[in-house]
Structures are given as structure tokens and as C-alpha cells.
Design brief:
299 residues, alpha/beta, EC 5.4.2.9, 8-stranded parallel β-barrel, 2 domains, 8 strands, TIM Barrel, pyruvate, binds sulfopyruvate, single chain, binds magnesium ion, Pyrv/PenolPyrv_kinase-like_dom
């Protein structure tokens, strides 16, 4: 099944599904091997892994290049964090075209202004896009997609901006009517109260995706009970890798030796396996001429 159609199933099936963060070809492959049905190409994680901030400091084509590696190394669908779409409707629809060309399954755009700021930062600097402008962006994207199953998710930042339930519902409804395939309702509270209030008011009008980074202690069953369609675990591969890299770098620096590090890192064989090195060995046998004799052999 096409990646786009696989992702459609995730969004439309009433049962709760989970989408796991990745930020490069390797982490995307690890997510797939872990059993997840979908990958979240997180803007925060991709920018952090490139050593820059989550403020559109990495250009959209630089992000596209990362996405290409992620898509090539996996067979499950990728939902891309498209931030604000990198500009107006025209930039957003061009982004969508380029994503489709790379077999990306869907893109999520948020109703903020370019350049965006991470939702967990700058309490007072989360300016939202006008509803009409953002709705036009969604329409332009839906009109542009070639594959009917490509998914456009509209992310509502009303709660993030400190606006209440009424504004959150108003925006979600406008984006649904503009053609969004699902709504991502974001919240930075440490409890699920905002999401709960939204889900009750929303009454399953359209699929809803959530990102429980801050309300992480909420039991997953609660999301099911509220009728959430998909959960994005948005940044744990990035955070796990930071922790692992900091520990091993410190250890090797302190020891001036790698002797004690060997047992606590992945084996080289595991690196080669993840790179699918075997396939190249097989292909070499098939396509390369037999190894030429060396000068030594000729003597
Ligand atoms: C991301 O992973 O980049 C997101 C989710 O947009 S969050 O960081 O929670 O806003
Ligand atoms: Mg993001």
C-alpha cells in the first residue's frame, strides 16, 4: 500500500495510533523497526540535530534534504512538521509538491507566523495567523496535491497562544471546512484539561491528533476514552540521543580511552546492519566484474 494510503488509515481508523519522532534517516529506520506505523518528522528535532534553533533557521530545502533521507530509508508513512508552511499559501503549496515527490505521506502546518517559534517557548510571542489567511493556505495545499490520499493536518495553536476553548474550536472548525484532513490540537499544560475540554466540544467532528509532550503523565487510555485518533511522541529519539551522546563523550574524554565505552555503545555490526550493507555486498557480486588480479598475482 502507498505510504499516503497507509497514513490515511492511521488518521481515519477509530482506534488510537502512535506516531514516533525521527530526525534523520537512521532514527527514521529505528522507528520503523520498533513497530510504529508512522513517523513524525519533527521540526524541533530536525533543527536541533542540525545544531540550530526551532525558528526556521534551517531553510525549507535543507529540511527537505533530511526528509529525503528519512523517506528513502523507510517504508512506513512520514508526517512532516511543516511549521507554518515557510511563508504564505504559495510557499506552502510548493512545499507540498516537493514532499509528494519524495513519497512523504502528509504535512502538518500550524496557524502561527513565519518565522515560527517553538510552542513551548516565549509565552508572549506566539502570534497567530489570521483564520482566513490560514484557511486559504490549507485550501491551496489541498488543491495542489496530486495524490488524493496525501494528508494535510491543520495544527491549532490557540491554547498555546493563551486563547481559550472558544477560539480553539472556532479555528479547528474553520480549518476543517477549508479542507484539512485532521486537526492537531496542541497544549502546553502539564495536564490534559485543555485537550479534554476541546474533545468534548468537538464531539468527533473530524480526526484529532495530539502531542502530549507536556502532559506526558496522562495515561494513554485517557486519550482513547476522549476519542483521539493519533498521538505524536514528538521528541524522545532526539532527547535519548542527546543524553547518550553526552554520556559517552564525557566518559571517553575523561578516560582518554575507549576501552570502557565498548560495552555501552551499539556494535559496528549493528551500524552496518542498519545501513543495509549486505545488500551492497550482494549487488557488488552481481554487477561488478570479478576482482582484477593484483600485480603480486601476476608475478
Ligand atoms: C515538533 O516536534 O517540532 C513540534 C511539536 O512541532 S512541539 O515541539 O511540541 O511543538
Ligand atoms: Mg515543530
Amino acid at each position: 500500500m502507498k505510504k499516503t494510503s497507509q497514513f490515511r488509515r492511521i488518521i481515519q481508523s477509530p482506534e488510537l495510533d502512535f506516531i514516533m519522532e525521527a530526525h534523520n534517516g537512521l532514527s527514521a529506520k529505528i522507528v520503523e523497526e520498533s513497530g510504529f506505523k508512522g513517523i513524525w518528522a519533527s521540526g524541533l528535532s530536525i533543527s536541533a540535530s542540525l545544531g540550530v534553533r526551532d525558528n526556521n533557521e534551517a531553510s525549507w530545502t535543507q529540511v527537505l534534504e533530511v526528509l529525503e533521507f528519512m523517506s528513502d530509508s523507510t517504508s512506513i508513512p512520514i508526517l512532516v512538521d511543516g511549521d507554518t508552511g515557510y511563508g504564505n499559501f504559495n510557499n506552502a503549496r510548493r512545499l507540498l509538491q516537493k514532499l509528494e515527490q519524495r513519497q512523504i505521506a502528509g504535512v502538518c502546518i500550524e496557524d502561527k507566523l513565519f518565522p515560527k517559534t517553538n510552542s513551548f517557548l516565549n509565552d508572549n510571542a506566539q502570534s497567530l495567523a489570521q483564520i482566513e489567511e490560514f484557511s486559504g493556505k490549507i485550501k491551496a495545499m489541498k488543491d495542489t496535491q496530486q495524490d488524493d490520499d496525501f494528508t494535510v493536518v491543520a495544527r491549532v495553536e490557540a491554547f498555546i497562544a493563551g486563547l481559550g476553548l472558544k477560539e480553539a474550536v472556532k479555528r479547528a472548525e474553520a480549518y476543517r471546512q477549508a479542507g484539512a484532513d485532521a486537526i492537531l490540537m496542541h497544549s502546553k499544560r502539564s495536564d490534559i484539561s485543555e485537550i479534554e475540554a476541546f474533545m468534548k466540544e468537538w464531539a468527533d467532528r473530524h480526526p484529532v491528533i495530539i502531542v502530549p509532550t507536556k502532559y506526558y503523565s496522562t495515561p494513554t487510555q485517557r486519550f482513547r476514552d476522549l476519542g483521539v485518533h493519533a498521538v505524536i511522541w514528538a521528541n524522545h529519539n532526539l532527547r535519548a540521543s542527546i543524553d547518550a551522546m553526552q554520556r559517552i563523550s564525557r566518559k571517553i574524554y575523561q578516560d582518554s580511552s575507549i576501552a570502557e565505552a565498548e560495552g555501552s555503545v551499539a556494535s559496528l555490526d549493528e551500524v552496518f546492519r542498519l545501513q543495509n550493507t549486505n545488500e551492497l555486498h550482494q549487488a557488488e557480486k552481481k554487477y561488478l566484474p570479478p576482482p582484477s588480479r593484483t600485480i603480486g598475482d601476476l608475478k
